[in-house]
C-alpha cells in the first residue's frame, strides 16, 4: 500500500484530483469508480478546477458509483444521484449517459443488482475512489460475518444511519436500505484510491490498514489488493505506527 499523509486538506484534495486527472489524460476512455459522502466533495471541487485549468476532457470517460439509497429518486437532494450531478457531473464535460449509479428505485432490486454487475464485468474499473465509514464500511458494505461479492441490497447499520443523518432533516428520514457494489466488485478495480480524513476515523484507519483482514472491517480487505493508494490527513493517520507494518513512511506528505 502506498500511504500518503497530508498536513493540509486542500493538498490532499489536489493530490486525489491529480491522480484522477492524470488517468483521464493518459487514458481518455478510462472507467472511474466514484464515491459519495463528505470525503470526496473537496476532491471533486479540485478535479473540476484541474480539468478547467488543464483542459482535461471527460467526454469518453465512463463512471460507476458505489452505492445509492433505496427509495430516493434522483431528484431527491439526499440521493447520491443528485449529489453526483451537483458536485461533479454538471461541472465537467462528461455525457450523462456514461454515468451510472445503482438504482435505488428499481421495481426489482435484485434484477437491477445483477444488471449492474454485468455492466461492471464488461467495463473494468481503472480507478476506484473510496471513502471509509466509521465502522470500516466501504461503499455500503457493512461489517458482517460474511460479505457479498457482487452488487446487492444492504440493510444499513444504525451507526451508519446516525452518521449520515447530518445530511437529512431527521434520523427518521435516513433510508434503512441501500444498493451497494460488493467488495468483490470493488477489489476488481485495477487501482484503488482510499481517502480518509478526521480524528474520528483514526481508529478505523488503523484497523483497516494494519489490523487483521476480517469481514468485521470490510476495508481491511483492501490489504489484499495489489495497487492501493491511501491519502490521509494527519488526524486520520494519527494512530498509525510511524514506519510500521502498514507500509507507510511517516508524513510522506504532500507530493
Ligand atoms: O465521507 P463520509 O461522509 O465520512 O462517508 C464515508 C463513507 O460513507 C458512505 O458515504 C456511505 O455511508 C460511503 O460511500 C463513504 O465511503
TrEMBL record:
<dbReference type="GO" id="GO:0019262">
    <property type="term" value="P:N-acetylneuraminate catabolic process"/>
</dbReference>
<dbReference type="GO" id="GO:0042802">
    <property type="term" value="F:identical protein binding"/>
</dbReference>
<feature type="active site" description="Proton acceptor; for ring-opening step">
    <location>
        <position position="137"/>
    </location>
</feature>
<comment type="similarity">
    <text>Belongs to the glucosamine/galactosamine-6-phosphate isomerase family. NagB subfamily.</text>
</comment>
<dbReference type="GO" id="GO:0005975">
    <property type="term" value="P:carbohydrate metabolic process"/>
</dbReference>
<protein>
    <recommendedName>
        <fullName>Glucosamine-6-phosphate deaminase</fullName>
        <ecNumber>3.5.99.6</ecNumber>
    </recommendedName>
</protein>
<dbReference type="Pfam" id="PF01182">
    <property type="entry name" value="Glucosamine_iso"/>
</dbReference>
<dbReference type="InterPro" id="IPR004547">
    <property type="entry name" value="Glucosamine6P_isomerase"/>
</dbReference>
<dbReference type="InterPro" id="IPR006148">
    <property type="entry name" value="Glc/Gal-6P_isomerase"/>
</dbReference>
<feature type="active site" description="Proton acceptor; for enolization step">
    <location>
        <position position="67"/>
    </location>
</feature>
<keyword id="KW-0378">Hydrolase</keyword>
<dbReference type="InterPro" id="IPR037171">
    <property type="entry name" value="NagB/RpiA_transferase-like"/>
</dbReference>
<feature type="domain" description="Glucosamine/galactosamine-6-phosphate isomerase">
    <location>
        <begin position="10"/>
        <end position="226"/>
    </location>
</feature>
<feature type="active site" description="For ring-opening step">
    <location>
        <position position="135"/>
    </location>
</feature>
<comment type="pathway">
    <text>Amino-sugar metabolism; N-acetylneuraminate degradation; D-fructose 6-phosphate from N-acetylneuraminate: step 5/5.</text>
</comment>
<comment type="function">
    <text>Catalyzes the reversible isomerization-deamination of glucosamine 6-phosphate (GlcN6P) to form fructose 6-phosphate (Fru6P) and ammonium ion.</text>
</comment>
<keyword id="KW-0119">Carbohydrate metabolism</keyword>
<dbReference type="GO" id="GO:0006043">
    <property type="term" value="P:glucosamine catabolic process"/>
</dbReference>
<dbReference type="GO" id="GO:0006046">
    <property type="term" value="P:N-acetylglucosamine catabolic process"/>
</dbReference>
<dbReference type="GO" id="GO:0005737">
    <property type="term" value="C:cytoplasm"/>
</dbReference>
<dbReference type="GO" id="GO:0004342">
    <property type="term" value="F:glucosamine-6-phosphate deaminase activity"/>
</dbReference>
<feature type="active site" description="For ring-opening step">
    <location>
        <position position="142"/>
    </location>
</feature>
Amino acid at each position: 500500500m502506498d500511504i500518503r499523509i497530508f498536513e493540509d486538506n486542500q493538498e490532499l484534495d489536489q493530490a486525489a484530483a491529480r491522480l484522477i486527472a492524470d488517468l483521464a489524460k493518459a487514458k481518455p476512455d478510462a472507467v472511474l469508480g466514484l464515491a459519495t459522502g463528505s470525503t470526496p466533495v473537496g476532491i471533486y471541487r479540485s478535479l473540476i478546477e484541474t480539468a478547467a485549468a488543464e483542459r482535461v476532457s471527460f467526454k469518453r470517460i465512463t463512471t460507476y458509483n458505489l452505492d445509492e439509497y433505496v427509495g430516493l429518486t434522483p431528484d431527491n437532494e439526499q440521493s447520491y444521484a443528485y449529489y453526483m450531478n451537483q458536485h461533479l457531473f454538471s461541472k465537467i464535460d462528461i455525457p450523462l449517459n456514461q454515468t451510472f449509479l445503482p438504482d435505488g428505485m428499481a421495481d426489482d432490486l435484485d434484477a437491477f443488482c445483477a444488471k449492474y454487475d454485468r455492466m461492471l464485468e464488461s467495463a473494468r474499473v481503472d480507478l476506484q475512489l473510496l471513502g471509509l465509514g466509521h465502522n470500516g464500511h466501504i461503499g455500503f458494505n457493512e461489517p458482517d460475518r460474511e460479505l457479498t461479492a457482487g452488487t446487492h441490497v444492504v440493510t444499513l447499520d444504525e451507526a451508519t444511519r446516525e452518521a449520515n443523518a447530518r445530511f437529512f432533516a431527521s434520523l427518521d428520514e435516513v433510508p434503512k436500505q441501500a444498493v451497494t457494489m460488493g467488495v468483490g466488485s470493488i477489489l476488481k478495480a485495477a487501482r484503488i484510491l482510499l481517502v480518509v480524513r478526521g480524528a474520528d476515523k483514526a481508529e478505523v484507519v488503523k484497523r483497516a490498514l494494519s489490523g487483521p483482514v476480517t469481514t468485521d472491517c470490510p476495508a481491511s480487505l483492501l490489504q489484499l489488493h495489489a495497487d492501493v493508494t491511501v491519502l490521509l490527513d494527519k488526524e486520520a493517520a494519527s494512530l498509525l505506527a510511524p514506519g510500521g507494518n502498514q507500509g507507510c513512511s511517516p508524513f510522506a506528505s504532500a507530493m
